[in-house]
Amino acid sequence: MGDETIRGRVWKFGDHVDTDLIIPATYLDTTDPERLGRHAMEGADPQFAANVRRGDVIVAGANFGCGSSREHAPLALSGAGVACVAAESFARIFFRNAINLGLPVFEAPGIHGAASQGDVLEIDPARREIRNVTTGAAVPFSPYPGFIQSIIAAGGLIPLVRLRLGEGRFHESV
Amino acid sequence: MGATVTEKILAAHCGGKSVEPGGFINASVDLMMANDVTAPQAIREFLRTGAARVRDPGKIVLISDHFTPNRNVASAQQVKLVREFAAGQGIEHFYDVGRTGVCHVIVPEEGYVSPGDLVIGADSHTCTYGALGAFATGVGGTDMAAAWATGEIWLRVPETIRVVYHGEPGEWVGGKDIILETIARMGVDGARYRALEFTGDAVARLSIYDRFTIANMAIEAGAKNGVFEADEKTLEYLRGRTGRKPVIFASDPDAAFADTVEIEVAALTPRVACPSLPENVKPVDELEDVRLDQVFIGSCTNGWLSDLRAAARVLKGKRVHAGVRLIVIPPSPAIYLRALKEGLIETFIEAGGAVGSPTCGPCLGGHMGVLAEGETALATTNRNFVGRMGHPGSFVYLSGPAVAAASAVTGRITHPGRVCGR
């Protein structure tokens, strides 16, 4: 996750897509992204996992990822091949988990009304803009705060921790 | 400008410098908790940090609760992984079958949290410990792994919403009804990224268990944490559990709040959240046509001893309706034992209920009472999302323990006053 443009086909969902919909609890007895990916979004659309293609993108309404702290949710989406999630807003634990694990997430008010199932989107981090290639619409998104950008630039929280532990400077302030 | 309780606790954990809502901090962590579902992911990430040892094993608590006693081979493998990690890292606070229970009941019961602490847990209901005047928030496995390695967590300082409770709750009204009404007013994302501070004259009248129930569901309004100012009841609960000196913070009179929500609890009647969001709240009287297949009493929300007493009071001398399966799960060995000695377990079994050993069990559709397609349950738990307790075509209603017990007797959602003749 960095500056490269993401281009993918839209799977569209509504408001308050919770973690039980993203990955039902009965599948939490593994942390393997591939196995979790086979059940991604099962609660919201039982056909999703069978039909999603690597590089597809999810567009959702408000509060995407509300509920549990399970990292199995972003892992399942990554395992299913989802390239990124663009939503009106995100629940905070899901947002942290996605950033920490390197699943790109974009908070883009207006995106839900500007994309339909099957449209092709281009997410352009350099221009902070999501373009709907199918319709020509464009929706801006906010840049991440500096500290979150440093996690993204490192490739996730663990690479950042590894880097800082190695340099003996984790305990400097952010 | 003054500071809120949450801002003061966070400031105390990043070198005492003042913190501003919206700012990012690296904060030192007093306690790190993970369970059998989230610890395996944390271990996986920890192994990638390059750290050979966790920084402070004494601050780590690992609790098997979601799928224990192990429900299948995969969950047995996961707990085995956690058990071996704990042994290898010298983590003494590992809770296995026999000592274990629902993590958010075990952690306060065992005295791991004191007022003023900063706690993270790899479970979204970690916010429960805010009832004790601590900052407590849920995180994922990767955050947990980073904290194990470094002793710190990155946090965005949240704005605080003040929730003011007025008046004296009525006979059948408890913490669950109060928090459901609060979530109904705010919506499931009304407190997203923010802290909730529970205050007002009604708080002093609420038991510590009602406060646990309220703080437990702060996340269901999207909040980062929910906190009560510690008082005499807090200290009374902590007595004999911890020798640590409490650090009690109060919000300054000129502290800035993002919003204030005022709720008259004296006017409340028992509340029920309808499928499939905790904000779909109605008075129990409007739902008396809803037929039930299962009633579950337990969980980190409403499995406390006071909750089991409230349920037993309604069920004493009555029979569970023929069409209903009543499942009662005391959430810790200590609560189970007390319930046994007080005769509550006897009451549940004589009424026709099934009593299980401490686990999260059916709350998240794990085991011990999973729902089939088309079935409806009333549960004293915290989430009624689609498929939460089993099949995506099943339905979950949420209530406090007295409503749950009364509804088990009649087979429909029922005000406890009807069953108890009042």
Topology:
The complex is a heterodimer of chains A (174) and B (422).
Chain A: E1 6-12, H1 19-22, H2 33-37, H3 48-51, E2 57-60, H4 72-80, E3 84-87, H5 92-101, E4 105-107, E5 120-124, E6 129-132, E7 138-140, H6 146-154, H7 157-167
Helix pairs in contact in A: 6-7
Chain B: H1 5-12, E1 24-28, E2 31-35, H2 39-46, E3 60-63, H3 73-89, E4 93-95, H4 103-109, E5 118-122, E6 135-138, H5 141-150, E7 152-156, E8 160-166, H6 175-186, E9 195-199, H7 208-216, E10 225-228, H8 232-238, E11 259-264, E12 271-273, E13 281-283, E14 294-298, H9 299-302, H10 305-315, E15 325-329, H11 333-341, H12 344-350, E16 354-355, E17 376-379, E18 395-398, H13 401-410, H14 416-419
Parallel strand pairs in B: 2-3, 2-5, 3-4, 5-6, 8-9, 8-11, 9-10, 14-15, 14-17, 15-16, 17-18
Antiparallel strand pairs in B: 1-7, 12-13
Helix pairs in contact in B: 2-5, 6-7, 10-12, 10-13
Sum up the structure in keywords.
heterodimer; A: 174 residues; alpha/beta; 7-stranded mixed beta sheet; 7 helices; 17% strand; globular; B: 422 residues; 5-stranded parallel beta sheet; 18 strands; 29% helix
Structural commentary:
The complex is a heterodimer of chains A (174) and B (422). Chain A is of the alpha/beta class and 174 residues long. Helices cover 30% and strands 17% of the residues of chain A. Chain A contains seven helices and seven strands. In chain A, strands 4-3-2-1-5-6-7 form a seven-stranded mixed sheet. The model of chain A has no long low-confidence stretch (mean pLDDT 94). Chain B has 422 residues and is an alpha/beta fold. Chain B contains 14 helices and 18 strands. In chain B, the strands form five sheets. In chain B, strands 4-3-2-5-6 form a five-stranded parallel sheet, with helices on both faces. A five-stranded parallel sheet of chain B has the order 16-15-14-17-18. In chain B, helix 2 packs across helix 5, helix 10 crosses helix 12 (344-350) and helix 10 packs parallel to helix 13 (401-410). The N and C termini of chain B lie far apart (50 Å). The relative contact order of chain B is 0.14. The mean pLDDT of chain B is 97. The chains are: A alpha/beta (174), B alpha/beta (422). Chains A and B meet through helix 5, helix 6 and helix 7 of A and strand 1, helix 2, helix 3, helix 5 and strand 7 of B.
